[in-house]
Amino acid sequence: FVPIDEDEPANFKESLNALFRRVEKDSTDQKAYGNLKGKFERYFSSIGGKTFSVPYLEKGTTDTLRIQYTRNELLDILVNTSMDRIPYVITELIKGHHYDYIKRKLDGIFTQGNGPSGMRLSVYCADQTAYHSEKVSQQLYDAYPYLKGYHINDVYKELCDCWKVPPIKPETKQPFYSSKPALLADGELDNACRPLYIDMIHHYMPNSQRLLFLNRGHGVNGDDFNQFIQSFLDKPYQRIVSHKQEIVAY
Question: Are 69 and 54 in contact (CB under 8 A)?
Fold first, then answer.
C-alpha cells in the first residue's frame, strides 16, 4: 500500500541526510568532507540537463564508442555504492572524476546485460505504476531539484506504457489490520525502503516487533539478524531484546 515509486527519490535523500549528519559529526577531514550535504546539492543541481560523454571500448571489440551520460547515471552510481564509500565517491564526482565509475557501470551493462526481468516488469506495472501519480512525482522533484527526472527503480511509467499488463484490484492496495505477530527490520541508512515503512506496518500489526540496524542499509541480513529471526520463530509473542548498541529493538 506504499507508493514506492513516488517515495524512492525522497527515501534516497533521507538516507543521504542521515549519512551526511554522521560525516559532519565524525569526519576528521573537514576540508574534504565538511558541509558535504551542501556540496552534493549544489553540484547535482548545477549539472541538471547537462550531457557528458566518455570513450568506451567494449571487451572483445576494436571500435571505441563515444557514450553519453547524464546526472541520472551519476546518481545511479551513488545508489549502488555502499554507504561507507559514498562520501568519498561524492567528492570524486564533484571533482569531475567520473570516468572510472562510468566505465565500471558500462562494463556491467555490456557484460551482464541490464534491465528488469519480465516478471519484475509485470509485478511493478500492475501494482505500482498502475496507481502511480506523476503529479506527486513532480512535487517531489520540485522539493529536490537535484533529483529531478531520476528513477531509482528500474521499472517506471515509460516502460509500463510499453509493457501492457492489467492492474491489480484496488482493494489489494489497501492496508489491513492484523493481530498476527511479525518481525520487521530495516537499516537506518536504507536508501530505498525507509524505516518509516516498518513503523507504518506496525501501526496495522500491533503485535509486530521492529529492529533498526543503525549501521546498515537496504536488505538487512547476517548472523545477528538470523539469531533474532530464530528467537522470534521460537517465541513470536516474546519481546525481542537487543544487546548491541547498533541494533535497536522496539
Answer: yes
User: Nearest 5°: CA angle at 92, between 46 and 6?
Assistant: 55
Tell me the C-alpha distance between 78 and 13, whole Å: 11
Q: What pTM, to 2 d.p., does this model score?
A: 0.88
Report the distance separating Cα 104 and Cα 160, nearest Å.
28
Q: Are 248 and 215 in contact (CB under 8 A)?
A: no
Per-residue pLDDT reduced to its tens digit, 211-240: 999 999 998 999 999 999 999 999 999 999
| Other beta carbons less than 10 A from residue 62's beta carbon | 6
Amino acid 92: pLDDT: 98
Listing DSSP states for the chain in one string gives: ---HHHHHHHHHHHHHHHHHHHHHHH-S-HHHHTTHHHHHHHHHHHTTT-EEEEEE--TT--PPEEEEEEHHHHHHHHHTS-TTTHHHHHHHHHTT--HHHHHHHHHHHHHH--S--HHHHHHHHHHTGGG--HHHHHHHHHH-GGGTT--SSS--HHHHHHS--PPPPGGGGS-------EEEEEETT-SSS-THHHHHHHHH-TTEEEEEETT--SS--SHHHHHHHHHHHH-TTSPP---STTEEE-
Q: Give the closest residue to 238 by CA, choosing from 173, 160, 183.
A: 183
